[in-house]
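Progress note, sequence design subtask.
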């Protein structure tokens, strides 16, 4: 129960309080209206000074209680403090308001500018088209670009001989831009520049290339059998490593591959560089990591970083696929611009996008697990092998995060987890929303889903009895803070979604329907927030206050539709105490804020918000010192400060404190905090076809004190649906035959690669934000929301398992493939029926 509560309703006209209604709770014996305080406020300017003065009047309201919950003096002081909080750092509180996305109107009217849009306003633009290998693994014996130059409209063919710097586009120096040995079907051996895209395409068809085919490893299981691994093989270990050595009940299974997933669908990369009179390069690029894109472009061109500027206007989506993969394409376009002196546009077609760019890492997991007689997890041994594709890219940190999330929300006393990255002749797999976390969580949820029937324990009970409790640590040594929040969210979903009642209804429905079954499942999420690479947990911002009082923000984060800029506007407006309409966010540019980290790891609002807040606080402090107690309107204060030569701009910086990580032993405190969530899902399956629909989903998710509730709710809903697609629909297939098409991606269009749409949405979707979840040490007590909601969709997969099990006898353990497509569900039903 609150010791004191204060409610305000104020009418303010031109900065003056015209009407006030104030309610006080916990101050007197019963809630009261603060009539004297209301009268003192009306007619006064809404300023900090007024609040201080009226606070004295508030002291006389009612007769404060004095008991074990709070003293009378504390209650009065708290009431005054809350009044001051309403004024905030100034007169406006934007953080926490339910505001629309800052570009929402531009999005829905078609006026939002993306990287490719200004190309139609740019003179003399050339278009780039790749010459792609038809082989999964082959040596280039001969490349003749001459015929392409005879095609009308072709201006130049870019090859390795044209690179003035280093012929490599990877941060691990294992991704030649123009390869002598191609490593996957679609690997570009050269690029054709044309006056039109059609001319470039025809020119690419005219290029003559001879290849010597080499043996190719396509399937992940082939790579495991051939021991085709690369990079580190990390181990997370705690306790003894013998699963089942002391537990009376054990279960052992080897699981199939976890799904990959495309990071590129609907998100083609569109670099468009130009060269100025000094030979410096300006690159417009759809990238989550402008700083690294700049570094790779400079690396390829053989120039220093300050010769290259990268700007990202906004992205129509990123989800990790644009963290590393745009660099090479930007380098190609920049190289073409340098060599021709003309802007170069590189926009991949949908087919090229799917065949040339990386995907979410597919995983193979084998495991052994032990439970106690009461259903407590005792020990787990698991080997996780990711499909890294042809180069390392981000495979090592993705694998590390997967290993750090195998535990999900569960305490496992004895753990040994081994990770490996397999090298295959496929696209270089890369970051995708969750960055390994979903694959790791899928392991433990699959284990619990399979083992619950064998143990004779209800899956909901099995999960909840294994939750972390206060004082317990993860297998990598980090103490879990606020573990009780999982339990709170779990109980809230059980109650609000009427789980007990609905399970009885489902039981009755299944008994009455032989060929249609329903299932309901709950799953938790515990997701660590911060980059595994500690140095990336930093951010910068540049804030300008102009003479008219308007404010311009530059920060290191990129906007990919998730509302980062919206939150930065709210943070700045709140810190400066001005209306949000006075603040604008400029496009992300490397010449404004240097050495930025990627907009990734769900930490961009934490990092950039901290930097923006720091810069605004510097400016606010200077203005407050200049005002010297005077209450001036914002515009007047700024103008006076300008003429008084007060600095009206500031560079802000933020670094995440309290984190450390030793990747050599996979131990430390890598995450600032954990984001929690719980989802309940109900599905219905047609036993004849395996087709299913999601009837209802209920979610309670922890975002701390939300910076922007509408944005966060949208991210939870969108993340959940994206996870639903990954787990049930998005089935990437490569040709694994020994024929001429070996290694070819067969799902390379929207007709063969199924994405979630309106028809896959739950009939009913209820989302609530966890209350009383302030997170200490982060901007305004908020938490990340980008990646964690994706893993809430694990509830749908487990609900499908429950429904499939209803077709068999009681106690049947259901093996369910991922993605759980209708065909996969059909075959799972067939197995439980026999």
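Output:
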């Amino acid at each position: 129960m609150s010791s004191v509560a204060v409610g305000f309703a104020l009418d303010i006209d031109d900065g003056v309080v015209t009407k006030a209604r104030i309610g006080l709770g916990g101050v007197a014996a019963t809630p009261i209206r603060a009539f004297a305080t209301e009268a003192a406020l009306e007619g006064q300017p809404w300023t900090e000074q007024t609040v201080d003065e009226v606070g004295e009047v508030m002291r006389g309201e009612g007769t404060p209680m004095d008991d074990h919950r709070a003293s009378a003096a504390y209650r009065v002081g708290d009431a005054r403090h809350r009044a001051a909080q309403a004024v905030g750092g100034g007169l406006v509180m934007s953080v926490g308001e339910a505001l629309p996305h800052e570009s929402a109107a531009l999005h829905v009217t078609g006026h939002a500018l993306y990287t490719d849009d200004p190309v139609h306003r740019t003179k003399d633009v050339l278009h780039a088209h790749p010459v792609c290998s038809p082989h999964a693994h082959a040596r280039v014996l001969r490349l003749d670009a001459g015929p392409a130059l005879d095609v009308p409209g072709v201006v130049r063919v870019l090859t390795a001989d044209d690179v003035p710097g280093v012929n490599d586009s990877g941060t691990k120096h294992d991704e030649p831009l123009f390869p002598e040995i191609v490593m996957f079907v679609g690997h570009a051996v050269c690029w054709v520049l044309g006056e039109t895209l059609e001319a470039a395409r025809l020119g690419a068809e005219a290029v003559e290339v001879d290849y010597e085919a080499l043996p190719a490893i396509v399937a992940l299981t082939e790579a495991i059998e051939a021991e085709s691994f690369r990079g580190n093989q990390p181990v997370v270990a705690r306790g003894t490593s013998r699963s089942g050595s002391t537990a009376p009940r054990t279960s052992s299974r080897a699981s199939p591959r976890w799904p990959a997933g495309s990071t590129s669908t609907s998100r083609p990369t569109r670099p468009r560089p130009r060269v100025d009179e000094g030979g410096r390069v300006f690159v417009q690029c759809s990238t989550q990591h402008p700083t690294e894109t700049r570094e790779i472009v400079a690396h390829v061109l053989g120039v220093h970083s300050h010769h290259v500027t990268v700007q990202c206007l906004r992205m129509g989506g990123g989800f990790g696929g644009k963290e590393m993969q745009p660099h090479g394409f930007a380098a190609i376009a920049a190289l073409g611009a340098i060599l021709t002196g003309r802007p170069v546009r590189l926009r991949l077609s949908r087919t090229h996008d799917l065949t040339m760019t990386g995907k979410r890492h597919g995983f193979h997991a084998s495991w052994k697990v032990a439970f106690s007689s009461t259903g407590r997890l005792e020990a787990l041994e698991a080997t996780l092998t990711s499909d890294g594709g042809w180069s390392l890219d981000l495979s090592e940190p993705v694998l590390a995060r997967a290993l750090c999330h195998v535990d999900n929300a569960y305490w496992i006393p004895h753990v040994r987890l081994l990770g490996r990255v397999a090298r295959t002749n496929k696209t270089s797999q890369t970051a995708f929303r969750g960055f390994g976390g979903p694959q790791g969580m899928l392991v433990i949820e699959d284990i619990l889903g399979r083992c619950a029937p064998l143990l004779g324990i209800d899956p909901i009970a099995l999960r909840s009895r294994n939750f972390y409790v206060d004082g317990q640590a993860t297998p990598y040594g980090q103490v879990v803070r606020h573990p009780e929040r999982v339990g709170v969210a779990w109980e809230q979903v059980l109650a609000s979604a009427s789980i007990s009642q609905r399970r009885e209804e489902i039981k009755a429905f299944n008994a009455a329907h032989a060929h249609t079954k329903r299932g309901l499942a709950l799953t938790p999420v515990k997701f660590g927030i911060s980059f595994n690479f500690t140095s990336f947990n930093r951010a910068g911002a540049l804030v300008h206050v102009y003479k008219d009082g308007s404010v311009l923000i530059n920060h290191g984060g990129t906007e990919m539709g998730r509302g980062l800029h919206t939150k930065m506007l709210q943070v700045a407006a709140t810190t400066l105490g001005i209306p949000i309409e006075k603040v604008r966010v400029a496009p992300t540019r490397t010449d404004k804020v240097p050495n930025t980290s990627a907009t990734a790891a769900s930490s961009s609002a934490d990092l950039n918000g901290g930097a923006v807040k720091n810069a605004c606080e510097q400016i606010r402090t200077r203005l407050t010192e200049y005002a010297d107690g005077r209450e001036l309107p914002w515009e007047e204060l700024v103008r006076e400060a300008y003429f008084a030569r007060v600095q009206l701009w500031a560079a802000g910086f933020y670094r995440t404190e309290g984190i450390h990580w030793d990747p050599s032993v996979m131990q430390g405190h890598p995450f600032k905090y954990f984001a929690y969530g719980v989802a309940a899902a109900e599905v219905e399956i047609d036993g004849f076809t395996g087709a299913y629909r999601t009837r209802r989903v209920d979610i309670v998710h922890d975002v701390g004190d939300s910076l922007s509730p509408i944005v966060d709710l949208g991210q939870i809903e969108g993340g959940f649906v994206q996870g639903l697609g990954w787990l049930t629909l998005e089935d990437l297939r490569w040709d694994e035959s020994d024929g001429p098409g070996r290694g070819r991606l067969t799902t390379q269009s929207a007709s063969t690669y199924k994405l979630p749409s309106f028809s896959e949405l739950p009939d009913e979707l209820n989302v609530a934000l966890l209350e009383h979840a302030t997170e200490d040490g982060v901007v305004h007590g908020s938490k990340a929301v980008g990646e964690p909601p994706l893993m809430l969709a694990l509830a749908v997969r487990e609900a499908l398992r429950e429904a499939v099990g209803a077709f068999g006898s009681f106690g049947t353990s259901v093996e369910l493939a991922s993605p759980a497509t209708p065909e996969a569900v059909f075959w799972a039903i067939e197995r439980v029926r026999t």
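Confidence is low (pLDDT under 50) at residues 87-91, 243-249. Work on this subtask will continue into the next period as scheduled.
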